[in-house]
Amino acid sequence: MDFLTPVIDGFGVVLEPANLLYCLLGVVVGMLVGVLPGLGPAATIAILLPLTFGVEPVTAIIMLAGIFYGAQYGGTITSVLLRLPGEASSVVTVFDGHALALKGRAGTALGIAAIGSFVGGTVSIVALSLLAPVVAGFALDFGPPEYTALALLGILLVATVSNGGRVKAIVAACLGLLLATVGRDMFTGAERFTFESLSLADGLDFVPIAMGVFGLGEILYNLEERRKGAVAPARVANAWPSRADLRQSSGAIGRGSVLGFFLGILPGGGATLSSLAAYALEKRRSKTPERFGHGAVEGVAAPESANNAAATSSFIPLLTLGIPANATMAMIFGALMIQGVTPGPQLVSEDPDLFWGVVNSMYIGNILLLIMSIPLVGLFVKILRVRGSILAPITVLITLVGVYTVRNSVFDIALVVVFGLVGYLMKKFGFEPGPLVLAFVLGSLLETSLRRSLLVFDGDPTGFLTRPISGTLFLLLAVVVLLPLAQKLFRARRGTARAEREKADA
Amino acid sequence: MITSRGGSPEAGAGAEGTAAVPGAPEGSGRGAGASGATEAPDGRRGPDGAETGEPSGPGPGEPETAEEPAPPPAGPVTNIVVALVVVALGAAGLAGSWSLGLGEASAPSAGMWPFLVSAAITCLGAALVFQARRTRDAERFSSSSWAVLAGLATMAAFASLVGVIGFEIPAAVLAFVWLRFIGGESWRLSVLTSLGIVVAFYLLFVAVLAVPIPHLF
């Protein structure tokens, strides 16, 4: 059982007191973030990035990962009690969770959600532990052409699946790619788009962009939201679900976990999509679909298991290929790069402590969450009473001072404000900021591998298609681009046909 | 199959179908898969009626956002301006990367990659111009947009003053403006809270963490 040794060593890493502490910190912050509507996990990680500089890479990523999956737990609480999904991924939990709360079964809903989340997370971690080294081993042979294809596919898929217009999402991604070129060119040493500014010569830093576009941009955007009337939260009694409830939802939890795991691996998939898909699946499978929306326990169990499973499995592309699958993973990718760790297939073999430490911290984190979430519900409900108008200036100041602490640079403060404005305007005009940050993070990888491949192929772009893996990936890329176009054409033609038929009828 | 559009509308449709049942507050999940900003399938929103009128309430057929009206979509003029800004950005990128030199396909120079990306931006911007009349995902500025402007002004002031007079006064001013004028808190609470925030920041960043942030005291 040699291959198990690094796994067990990983537990040794997690159980170090500092790592345990940061894991706890991460999941608590994550839960808080999940509870408070407004800032999503990506924005929170952005704002807390400066916190991770003083600590070891493993510890930093353990905390950031904790924030990510902790938020999935927290979002459930507000969905069930207040009909306010704190996270996009718990929007579907609202339907049945709140219906259960109205029937006086809020405790059951929360309990089922916590157990479902735990099972989903654990299933996903086990699968991750088994699958990730295999994927990483496979990816070790990848050369520049494969990475070009992977990075392009990742960016494009994220842009395609994001909400908002698809064209706008791709514009945002291209903008991120363009921003990544600012600074000295790695091949020729030429300065690009620096406008003779010394501060720009080394390129734009990831931290001010992420903190500005996600953090400040989101805060500014929320200023325009209307005030939310305080809703009296339902009383929580008996958080332990009955045996009948458990039996009823066990299938949903199992299916949700598996579905979530697979959707989480796909770029752009992630927690939100998988919770929607798991809910839809349960409803379709159910013999009594009419109960859904009126307090079906499965309607809480499936999406909650799925979003946690997906949150965990979306680490696979990041840790094995070095390709973040969604905006939050892009933040963790950025954090790793800042720590001097390049995520990729070599991570499992070269840095097993980090790899298995992070993976195993998720077991511990999930147990911590399960233990804490039910007794802490009352506390979270209290925190919800803190007004956004008081939290907002504190968050802004933490961002402004925090971004300074990273490089001790006043220029970065100006930069974060500028990108705050950019992020606000993007959201205002329907451009998702996620693809921008993701593309920015992948920008230099994409450019470097593209130019290396072109050098290898001696300028012949057909070389991308003749290599088996990159060829397959480019084929996939073509499908992703052409399928929606074809669908649109097909739909348009059917639309005109119908219109003509109607005209003929009339 | 879920990777591409083949799967996602299916999932989306499932959620939409259920959304109608309990009248869920879709609008409150910002950036949620189901928030009102999604590219609406044909006919989900009313026809192009709100081009010239005052910012009216939520359009017809959106009962799910009744609790929390989303800002009305921007008119076609805004959409065209936004699209033209994208085109201009792409054009600027094209010019900038052209001057860097493109090189050959076999020996790409510094400008090649940004040129390709800028070309893509320009084309997509042009596509947005053509789509402008049908675009529904941009919001128009509302009377509460001044709060954003005020918030930005305080941040800009903080950024430009922190190197000169330290962080304490700009931070206090920022917190006060956000509390009193943007957040609508009482004078008393605003003054006390903003002072409290500055003291806490001073203790945390200067006294405990010894971050070299410029400070007055």
From TrEMBL, chain A:
InterPro entries assigned: DUF112_TM (IPR002823)
Positions of transmembrane segments: 20-39, 46-71, 112-140, 147-163, 169-187, 258-281, 315-341, 361-381, 410-426, 469-486
Entry keyword annotation includes Membrane: yes
Residue ranges constituting the DUF112 domain according to the UniProt record: 20-438
Keywords: Membrane, Transmembrane, Transmembrane helix
One Pfam family linked to the record: TctA
UniProt feature coiled coil, ranges: none
PANTHER family named among the record's database cross-references: TRICARBOXYLIC TRANSPORT PROTEIN
Name by which UniProt lists this protein: Tripartite tricarboxylate transporter permease
Classification of source organism: Bacteria, Bacillati, Actinomycetota, Actinomycetes, Streptosporangiales
